[in-house]
Each structure stands twice: as C-alpha cells, then as structure tokens.
Design brief:
6 helices; single chain; 21% strand; six-stranded parallel sheet
C-alpha cells in the first residue's frame, strides 16, 4: 500500500502516557526505547502538514493502575502531549474504537487512512489496529514508534519485549495493516 499527505491520513497516538515509564510495573524489560522520539517526529510532521490526528488516552477503571485517571501516570508524555484543540479520546479498554466516538469522528471527517503509533504493541496497538483493519480503514502501523514489555508465559518462561513486539507486528502485517517505519513516513508524507 502507498500513502501520501493527499490521502489526509489520520495519526492515531495510542496511550503515550507517563505510566508506561515504570518498566518494572509492566514486566521489567521494554524494547524500542526510541519509540516516543519517533512518535514525536511523526506528530511534528502531522502538525506541520495540518493533517488530522487523535490522541488516545487509556483511563483504567482499576484504581490501582498507573493509568487510572487519578494517577500521574495517566498524563500524556510531554514529547507527544496534545496542544491547542487537538482531539483527545479517552478509553478504558484495549481498543480505541470501543466505548468511544473515534470511528464516528473519522467517518464524519471522511478519513479512510490511519497511521497508528504508541503503546503497547501487543495490547492496545494490536487491538486498535485489528479493529481498524476490520472496519476497512487503510491502516499503517509504525514498527519503531511502538513498543512493549516482556511477558511471562503460561509455564513461567520469560518472553523478551522484542520477541513480543516482533510477533505482534508479524501477526498484524499484511492482514490488518501495513507495517512501516518512521523514516518511510517521513519520506512519503
């Protein structure tokens, strides 16, 4: 699939929140430490080109979660924080489409191409990307502007963050989305 600014793609920034800075809370290991830097580059590109964008904020219903709206971890990271009247869509499940008006806003604006970035690859990124693909959006997922944490397997085996990230991307590529890099978008938008 190809992409250009003429497509008026929407940048969907998923859960780039301070709570994800506590690596031990989420598993003890994280991949792609430059994900937020790359997300910031893409956000600047979208702003400079006056393209549509949506900030997604996870507001956990669990009061003990770092992402609960009473916790500092719920706040957006400075590098990608919303400014002016940029839309913020609050969710409390993995998909940015469930319990929100994201699809309605996209459809009302006649947006058919999405670029998804943020945290975490195997949870909210994967779920949002799958739904975007199922809804028929021309969906791009940015591999180096997403990241995740290690996971414990059913038998206690530790799966590295990079393995979790790569398998999540492999499961999504060419079925729900086209997986691309930040540089690809910087060259094509």
């Amino acid at each position: 699939m190809s992409i250009s600014k003429n497509d008026r793609p929407a940048l969907i920034l998923v859960d780039i929140q301070k709570g994800f800075d506590d690596i031990n809370y989420w598993g003890g290991q994280r991949n792609n430490p430059d994900a937020e830097i790359n997300a910031g580059k893409l956000l600047k590109l979208w702003r400079d080109n006056k393209l549509p964008l949506f900030h997604i904020q996870h507001c956990s219903s669990n009061p003990k979660s770092l992402l609960h709206d009473t916790k500092e971890g719920n706040e957006f990271k400075e590098i990608t924080a919303p400014i002016d009247d940029e839309p913020v869509i609050k969710k409390n499940v993995n998909s940015a489409f469930i319990g929100t008006n994201l699809k309605e806003q996209l459809d009302n604006a006649k947006i058919s191409t999405l670029v998804i970035i943020g945290l975490t690859t195997d949870h909210c990124i994967s779920t949002t990307t799958r739904m975007a693909g199922n809804f028929g959006y021309n969906t791009f997922l940015v591999s180096d502007a997403t990241a995740t944490f290690n996971k414990k397997g059913l038998d206690g085996q530790n799966f590295s963050a990079e393995l979790i990230h790569e398998t999540a991307l492999a499961s999504l590529n060419e079925e729900f989305a086209t997986v691309v890099t930040t540089d690809f978008l910087l060259e094509n938008i």
